[in-house]
Amino acid sequence: MATWTWRFEKADGTEAAPAVEPEEFTTQGDAESWIGEVWKDLLAGGVDQVRLFEDATEIYGPMSLHAEEA
Fold it and tell me: From what superkingdom does this record's organism come (predicted)?
């Protein structure tokens, strides 16, 4: 079974320690639901962007946690 995980990064792509304890997820939907709930806490803790991985394969990223300027 695949494991879905997030990599937490600063704006320059270096790894950042997340303010919220990350989990391992069994589905992409669960991982995306979790990031939707905690992204503001991650951003406040110094994470600028995230990447989603399925096992060792990057699915997408970097995805900025900064709100788009309207």
Answer: Bacteria
Tokens of 39: 């992204």
**The one-letter amino acid at 5:** T
State how far the Cα of 54 lies from the Cα of 52, in Å rounded to an integer: 7
Q: Return the SS3 of 15.
A: strand
Burial 36-61 (b: 16+ CB within 10 A, else e): eebbeebbeeebbbbbbbeeeeeeee
Residue 17 tokens, joined:
């320690």
C-alpha to C-alpha distance for 29 and 40, rounded to whole angstroms = 19
**pLDDT tens column, 2-41:** 999 999 999 999 999 999 999 999 999 999 999 999 999 9
User: What residues are paired with 9 via a beta bridge?
Assistant: 15, 49
